[in-house]
Write a structure and sequence with these properties.
This protein is α/β, with parallel strands linked by helices. It contains 11 helices and 14 strands. 35% of the residues lie in helices and 19% in strands. Bound molecules: iron/sulfur cluster (2 copies). One iron/sulfur cluster binds next to helix 10.
Length: 309
């Protein structure tokens, strides 16, 4: 794999970024050595870019592989912080738990538009202060909306991490075209762009080669969740040859909502894709295609009802 400059950040990142959401309690990951093995193999094969988030609650899971890799791997994390104090705490938590003096990229998590970003102005300013101190190297946002990408451009951020896939899963109408245009504009403006959800959270794994071929045309890198060494090997082969080896086993996943759901609706509010509703005091999916299996609703459930399995 040939590394690429991530916009004007000065970071030369691999076109394949390790998306670490699979190694999170949000996705039923319970620990063990699988994460260290898979991450270490990815780093050996040339992946030098890793994406995590405060929400994923997986810093301690990532730390052993990162310790072995040292400074050769760039780390991006994200926070839902609104206030200055929350943002500073998020950076300190990442530095401490990951065992790193510097977090290469820090993003405001899931910003929908300039209005959302305005509401996070204090947190954004705190991240820029961290950049000025040299403990963060680039600042940006993640988003499921084209308007979020445009907001990142207007605000002059360094990096944007948008959702994009061939089927438009998780994107608002009119689907992928508006996001494609927004990403092209961001690239042209010099932002570093790395995309997410190329396989729609797993929905597109049966046509994974086509889906990855589409998504890799956009941005400088693509964050892909890989659950084990075999998936790492397949993904790296794809990025080196354009051909994806056949993956064995059942790769499909789905959202499970336990019967003890109380219908409180907190998961509905937490879903960035408006995929859930409460009917007869039970949460349920409105439409399967709206759900990208991110697991964010599970983090919001006070009853621990929701898992992506
Ligand atoms: S329903 Fe849950 S897993 Fe699906 S997109 Fe919404 S938050 Fe993510
Ligand atoms: S947050 Fe949990 S308990 Fe509340 S409606 Fe959703 S699944 Fe049910």
């Amino acid at each position: 794999m040939t590394n690429r400059l991530l916009g004007k950040t000065g970071l030369a990142v691999s076109p394949l970024c390790y998306g670490t959401l699979p190694f999170s309690p949000l996705q039923s990951y319970t620990g063990g050595g699988a994460a260290t093995d898979a991450l270490t193999r990815a780093f050996e094969l040339g992946v030098n870019f890793l994406d995590t988030a405060q929400l994923y609650d997986n810093y301690s899971i990532l730390r052993p592989a990162l310790a072995k890799a040292g400074r050769d791997v760039f780390v991006a994390s994200k926070t839902y912080a609104v206030s200055r104090e929350e943002a500073l705490q998020a950076v300190e938590e990442a530095r401490s738990a990951l065992g790193r003096d510097v977090i290469d990229i820090f993003l405001l998590h899931e910003q929908e538009s300039e209005h959302t970003l305005r509401g996070h102005a204090a947190a954004l300013e705190a991240l820029y202060d961290c950049k000025a101190k040299g403990i963060v190297r680039a600042v940006g946002l993640s988003t499921h909306r084209p308007e979020g990408v445009l907001a990142a451009m207007s605000a002059g951020l360094d990096v944007v991490h948008p959702l994009l896939n061939i089927a438009g899963l998780g994107l608002p109408p009119p689907g992928r075209s508006a996001m494609e245009n927004a990403i092209r504009s961001a690239e042209g403006a010099g932002l570093g762009v790395y995309t997410m959800k190329a396989l729609g959270g797993g929905h597109l794994w049966r046509s994974a080669e086509e889906a990855l071929a589409y998504a890799r045309q956009y941005g400088h890198s693509l964050a892909l969740g890989m659950r084990d060494v075999s998936e790492v090997g397949a993904a790296v082969t794809f990025f080196e040859t354009g051909a994806l080896p056949r993956l064995t086993g059942n790769k499909s996943r789905s959202l499970h909502i336990a019967t003890w759901c109380t219908g409180c609706g907190q998961c509905v509010a937490a879903c960035p894709n408006d995929a859930l509703e409460v009917v007869d005091c039970k949460a349920q999916l409105r439409e399967n295609d709206l759900c990208v299996l991110c697991g964010y609703c599970g983090a919001a459930c006070p009853e621990f009802c929701i898992k992506v399995i």
